[in-house]
Amino acid sequence: MKYYLISGEASGDLHGSYLIRALKTLDPKAQFRAWGGDLMEKEGVQLVKHYKTLAFMGFWEVLYNLPTILGNIKLCKKDILQTNPDVIIYIDYPGFNLRIAKWAKKKGFKNHYYISPQVWAWKENRVHQMKRILDALYVILPFEENYFKSKHQFSVHFVGHPLIDQIQNIKTENDFYASNNLETKKPIIALLPGSRFQEIKKILPLFVKVAEHLEKYQFIIAAAPGISPERYTPLLQKTNIKILYSKTHQLLKNSTAALITSGTATLEAALLGVPQLVCYKSNRFNYWVGKNLIKLKYISLVNLILDKAAVTELIQNACTTKNLIQHLNHLLKEENLETLGEDYQTLKRELGGPGASKTTAQLIVKAIKHS
């Protein structure tokens, strides 16, 4: 069968690569074409466009790049018609993917969505459209299944979270400190300032100030795959902060704590047992719009899944050098680490067991064979 996948971010590329691997096991003659990244390409897909050219964050950024976005939508539709796939698999990236899915439904293509748009956070009206245009929706957060089924009478598949498998498959790097030229006697604070340059530019200078005040730690950046070292360097103000690429999980495994911009990285840190502070800062306009549109108690996935403030969130005006230092010192006290560890164990149970990619692949293949 012919599979057409569309993702627009690094996380989608990662999750998509695992799904492709699972699909190939079930369908050895499968053909893949995708919008994604290096990880998907390594699995043997024909790449149409790299996600590095697709990710625009914030209302002003989207508006400014609207001609490019519309051009990509036109290209995608044309390519789908030429490819004529048996199924289109959308991976998150809702602003783009739901537009394509609406068009594809009218053209008679099968639409399967893996990793649901976060409609429970904002743009809930999208659910009605999703029910009309999607043939199947695979959700990865435990509360999403009840949200769609009970609140919207939308039958979805809870497949577990793909990070469970990805964390389990991490290979231990021997002598992590030496192989990465790190100071052996200094504990590590991992810095995960986001995957898009707009958010990195906003939060990383603040992380640098924290590093300047806490000299007993070494601060290491887990670099986003789509951001070159040259873009990080001007933000580091000649500090000794190192940048590591393609080693996020290894870095977290060897870290005493982490400062993380909200996103999937909060889950990665939790599954690896790393104490964390969730930090978010945006320009005033984007923050004002977001605050008025998004009606959630928390911004981190850890807290949303547990429905409690298990990890500290420092947002906008609360995200200051002073607060980061104060909360980091508080976080690393033994009694606080014990409580956090218990919360992390509860989180793992909530996320379900391994096999998200395999389960999703089985459901997709079964559905297409019986359609």
Keywords:
single chain, 371 residues, alpha/beta, Rossmann fold, 7-stranded parallel beta sheet, globular
Provide a compact summary of the structure.
The chain is of the alpha/beta class and 371 residues long. The chain has 2 domains: 2-160 and 355-369, Rossmann fold, CATH 3.40.50.2000; 176-350, Rossmann fold, CATH 3.40.50.
Description:
The protein has helices spanning about 10-25, 40, 60-65, 65-85, 95-105, 125-135, 140-150, 160-170, 175-180, 195-215, 230, 250-255, 265-270, 285-295, 300-305, 320-330, 335-350, 355-370, and strands at about 1-5, 30-35, 45-50, 85-90, 110-115, 135-140, 155-160, 190, 220, 240-245, 255-260, 275-280, 310-315. It folds into 2 domains: about 1-160 and about 355-370, Glycogen Phosphorylase B (Rossmann fold), CATH 3.40.50.2000; about 175-350, Glycogen Phosphorylase B (Rossmann fold), CATH 3.40.50. The protein has 18 helices and 13 strands. The model has no long low-confidence stretch (mean pLDDT about 90). The chain is of the alpha/beta class and about 375 residues long. The strands form 2 sheets. A 7-stranded parallel sheet has the order 3-2-1-4-5-6-7, sandwiched between helices. Strand 1 (about 1-5), helix 1 and strand 2 form a beta-alpha-beta unit. Helix 1 (about 10-25) packs across helix 18 (about 355-370), helix 4 (about 65-85) packs across helix 5 and helix 10 crosses helix 16. About 40% of the residues are buried.
In CATH, the architecture of the largest domain is 3-Layer(aba) Sandwich
Find the CATH topology of the largest domain: Rossmann fold
Strand tally is 13
Helix content: 40-55%
CATH-wise, what's the superfamily of the largest domain?
A: Glycogen Phosphorylase B
* Multimerization status: single chain
Count of runs of 4 or more consecutive helical residues: 18
Relative strand content: 15-25%
Mean of all residue-level pLDDT scores: 90
**Number of individual domains:** 2
Q: End-to-end span in angstroms?
A: 13 Å
Globular, elongated, flat, extended or rod-shaped: what is the shape? globular
> What Rg do the Cα atoms give?
21 Å
Major sheet strand order = 3-2-1-4-5-6-7
Q: Segments where pLDDT lies below 50 for 5+ residues?
A: none
**Which structural class do the helices and strands define?**
alpha/beta
* CATH top level class name of the largest domain: Alpha Beta
Give the biggest beta sheet. Answer: 7 strands, parallel
